[in-house]
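New to this. Please check this record:
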Amino acid sequence: MKKNAIKRVLVLDLARQFKEIKKDILPAIGHTLSRGDFILGKDLALFEREFARYCGVKFCIGVNSGTDALFLGLKSLGIGAGDEVIVPVFTYIASALAVTYTGARPVFVDVDEQTYNIDVSKIEQAITKNTKAIIPVHLYGQPADMKPLSGIAKKHNLKIIEDTAQAHGSKYRISAGKWRLAGGIGDIGCFSFYPTKNLGACGDGGAIITDNEGIYKKLLMLRDYGRKSRYEHVSLGYNSRLDTLQASILRIKLRHLDKWNAQRRKKAGIYNKELKGCTGIILPKEDDYTKHVYHQYVVRVKNRDEVMAGLNNEGIGVLIHYPIPLHLQEVYRNLGYKKGDFPVAERVAREIMSLPMYPNLEDKQVRFVSKSLRNIVDK
């Protein structure tokens, strides 16, 4: 590669993805516009059926965001005031806000330093008589360790709501030769279709999946004003429906998801190879019980601000997911946690850095980013 051949690498470039599928997306949008069935329309019903089949479950309910997926999922399980729900302390804040919206209390647990997912060994000490559920977050595209977590839930009669907002299509090994898709292992799986996700809409969107018909029927009413018929409302419901237009886009994108995830894994493999042996960089770890889909490719460095500035000077986009653990967020000061309570999350939050990662990222761009990072860290 010629020196300075690459001028700029975006941390994410959705325009490239649109260019790839433009010939399929535009007619799909046109068909929805022609039908005019914008709310609870044909393509929503079809997407729900197709996404449930893809995830290996019986039911899917489209809602208006990943946050609402978690909130309505919790509501469908009867969780509310006086209850407690266990949440990893290192995640996007929506995982905890959904609990708070119900009136329940999020109880934080530290994370594993290698996978950044909830530390299963620390869950039981956080369980009280008020605990009703656990929300494992499949962070950055890698499933949490669901087998021992499910054992704890069963032992203490707790529900599992999987936050799968970053892990569409990722897999977890249930037993030798048997894999399940993330989101389809617990009682409920919740997804976000925010545009940046592995399966992203062109705006907000989300979905809930389950094998439980009773939960499915509750969710149908919860997302649509508690409606039994057009003007008959039998329970407290909400306005949280996935738009048909977004569903028509997601139907097209779903057909590409496995290919896109494979491309993400390929880019991650190049990063791993190019950055291997650089002592100043901690690379992501993929456990052997998972198939990581690399929603983010996250490394750790000690002098992060300096490294990020160096990469920015090279025209390379980088982000931090996430700089402040939940127990140190101002909104949760009332929970009584303090600095030092979750040392792993606090250490990780000071060091993590997300490198460019998306299916249409060129291999030469990955190598350019890797070389630039190594040069900066090795100075």
About this structure: The chain has a mean pLDDT of 97. The chain has two domains: 17-110+117-254, 257-377. Residues 149 and 297 are 25 Å apart (CA to CA).
